């Protein structure tokens, strides 16, 4: 049986970021994922906001051109155009980003186990025993487990922690080779028909075009809505199938960060922890901030901090930051679609709506400010060095 300090289950943005930081601190880390490659089955659009771009060391070569223009529109043709003096968004090459982050993790000493999932988890003798599934079954003993396995986390249930209950579902197509013109822009459509409870979007960053829809799963059929939205766009583009390079889709938790996200056996990060804005469904900035805090808390816990160290990882406290967004999400969800559409169209020209839109799209509000990772942190109490064998 292999042994490590920390088993990180899931190699998305949260898992890759957390695993690397822990390894750099001297922890023996094993990173598991059911996928055989980190660039398979990517679900996120990959839109990074200014706050994230300014605060985190993201590989520049994986980032697309800067976006400063936003258009917020309704199906009736009403539109609000916003422009920022600064670059507010960049769309990442997510496959390249994940590969780069995995390389960083491997360089730091992370042991990578692709094509391996966690089938069960039990506590024994102060260790977490993971039964692994893949080409053949194996076991892994870890002092601590981090669930980074997405919005529908199985690790959350295994650890007895909270799990997401409120969702929207999104799907998007990515195109290259289209004849692009005009400045890079983010075009959002508030349409109960195409995207009940959320948005339809068309993002042109000068390199790629992302066409997508998102909404409450029980209120629309995502693929049919995506096709209808694409057909409604008044653009001089040829939508031949060969120009589409990728289709992404998945569940997005919008119930706010979960109240119980840590236990003596492990904790949750990223979508598994519900670290997504209930209003905008943006999760990349909260993901990175929570991952850095998770790494710090994990080191403190393993070095003898006990449950007092876990107290800093309190989802109930973080939820207070999302309180207004949760209330607004629930308010918007309860308004009949025709009434909401008419009210939005009538409000686009108002100064109040414009100020609110600028705050939503260009503001720096997101996840609460938490202690950032300190590169000088080192884990003193490490697991004994044992060979990592299947």
Structure characterization notes:
By secondary structure, the chain is of the alpha/beta class. It has one domain (2-329): 3-Layer(bba) Sandwich (FAD/NAD(P)-binding domain). The protein is built from 10 helices and 18 strands. The strands form 3 sheets. Strands 1, 2, 8, 9, 10, 11, 17 and 18 form an 8-stranded mixed β-sheet that branches. Strands 6-5-13-14-15-12-16 form a 7-stranded mixed β-sheet, with helices on both faces. A 3-stranded antiparallel β-sheet has the order 3-7-4. α1 (13-24) packs parallel to α3 (94-108) and α1 (13-24) crosses α6 (284-310).
Any descriptors?
18 strands, seven-stranded mixed sheet, 390 residues, 27% strand, FAD/NAD(P)-binding domain, alpha/beta
Radius of gyration: 21 Å
Alpha-carbon distance between the termini? 8 Å
Number of strands: 18
CATH superfamily: FAD/NAD(P)-binding domain
> How many domains is the backbone divided into?
1
Assign an overall shape.
Answer: globular
The residue-averaged pLDDT reads 88
Order of helices and strands: EHEEHEEEEHEEEEHEEEEHEEEHHHHH
- Helix segment tally: 10
At CATH level 2, the architecture is 3-Layer(bba) Sandwich
CATH fold-level name: FAD/NAD(P)-binding domain
Q: Low-confidence parts lasting 5 or more residues at pLDDT below 50?
A: none
Oligomer type = single chain
Structural class: alpha/beta
**Major sheet size, sense and barrel closure:** 8 strands, mixed
Share of helix, binned:
25-40%
Strand residue percentage: 25-35%
Can you identify the CATH class? Alpha Beta
């Amino acid at each position: 049986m292999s042994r490590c300090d920390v088993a990180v289950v899931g190699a998305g943005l949260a898992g890759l970021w957390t695993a690397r930081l822990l390894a750099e601190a001297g922890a023996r880390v094993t990173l598991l994922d059911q996928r055989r490659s980190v660039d398979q089955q990517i679900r996120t659009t990959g839109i990074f906001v200014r706050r994230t771009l300014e605060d985190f060391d993201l590989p520049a070569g994986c980032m697309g051109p800067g976006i400063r223009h936003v258009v917020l529109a309704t199906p009736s043709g009403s539109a609000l155009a916003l422009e920022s003096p600064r670059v507010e968004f960049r769309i990442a090459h997510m496959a390249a980003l994940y590969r780069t982050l995995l390389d960083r993790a491997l360089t730091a000493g992370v042991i990578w186990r692709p094509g391996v999932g966690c089938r069960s988890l039990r506590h024994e003798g102060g260790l977490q025993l993971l039964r692994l599934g893949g080409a053949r079954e194996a076991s892994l003993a870890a002092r601590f487990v981090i669930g980074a396995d997405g919005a529908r986390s199985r690790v959350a249930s295994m650890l007895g922690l909270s799990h997401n209950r409120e969702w929207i579902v999104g799907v998007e197509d990515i195109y290259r080779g289209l004849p692009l013109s005009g400045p890079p822009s983010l075009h959002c459509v508030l349409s109960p028909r195409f995207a009940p409870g959320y948005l339809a979007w068309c993002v042109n960053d000068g390199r790629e075009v992302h066409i997508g829809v998102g909404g409450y799963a029980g209120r629309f059929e995502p693929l049919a809505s995506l096709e209808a939205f694409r057909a409604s766009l008044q653009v001089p583009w040829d939508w031949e199938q060969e120009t589409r390079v990728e289709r992404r889709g998945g569940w997005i938790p919008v119930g706010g960060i979960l109240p119980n996200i840590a236990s003596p056996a492990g904790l949750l990060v990223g979508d598994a922890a519900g670290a997504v804005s209930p209003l905008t469904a943006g999760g990349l900035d909260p993901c990175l901030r929570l991952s850095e805090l998770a790494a710090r808390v994990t080191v403190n816990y393993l070095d003898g901090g006990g449950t007092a160290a876990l107290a800093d990882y309190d989802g109930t406290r973080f939820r207070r930051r999302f309180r207004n967004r949760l209330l607004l999400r629930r308010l918007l969800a309860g308004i009949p679609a025709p009434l909401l559409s008419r009210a939005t169209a009538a409000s686009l020209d108002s100064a109040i709506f414009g100020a609110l839109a600028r705050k939503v799209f260009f503001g720096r509000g997101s996840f609460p400010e938490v202690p950032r990772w300190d590169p000088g942190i080192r884990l003193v109490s490490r697991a004994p060095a044992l060979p990592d064998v299947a």
